[in-house]
Amino acid sequence: DAKTTQPTSMDCAEGRAANLPCNHSTISGNEYVYWYRQIHSQGPQYIIHGLKNNETNEMASLIITEDRKSSTLILPHATLRDTAVYYCIVRATRTQETSGSRLTFGEGTQLTVNP
Amino acid sequence: NAGVMQNPRHLVRRRGQEARLRCSPMKGHSHVYWYRQLPEEGLKFMVYLQKENIIDESGMPKERFSAEFPKEGPSILRIQQVVRGDSAAYFCASSTRQGNYGYTFGSGTRLTVV
Q1: How far is B3 from chain A (nearest CA, A)?
Q2: Distances (CA, A) of A86 to A5, A7, A115, B33, B94
Q3: Each residue of A48-60: pLDDT tens digit?
Q4: Band of residue A92 on the pLDDT scale cut at 50, 70, 90
């Protein structure tokens, strides 16, 4: 699975949009981009994933560049409860029962939402 | 519609004792993954299991650690003869087949070895 690069930390004002970038320049055609977050001491939480089209759900939007070498997770109206470590993960889709299906977490971005 | 259930939430063991961590996957999920998070470090993959089968144990330490996911009951991560360096948060996740729609994680078990 391709490697990702994220900034170590970011700050955002409460109520403003938080835009978290991720570089994945070695991504291949069958690899999805997944985003998870981990609020302090809790289990990681799935946010969103996409292949090449932009995606939106109730939590966030995912913007993937046309060449798929980078993406941005957007939290449209950040709240204090969005303070967490955000992980961008690239992983191929699995089509075989025994092909292995791990997610490999990097260091992520520590997002701090300030009042 | 319970999520992934892990117990106990906190576990204290003396050096040399055994630790058993349990994980019940979400309803309808047949794939289980265990991760370890050492203090101030990232999440490290340990093992991936399906019912009665270990699919990928490349992240498991070679000694003292074992995992199972029996036909009936929860998945168990077992650590024998615990040492202080085993103190960590252990997270379990589950998914449907292949996990292409992401994993659901439990709240973790915090193991403290004294």
Answers
A1: 12
A2: 12, 10, 19, 20, 20
A3: 999 998 999 999 9
A4: confident
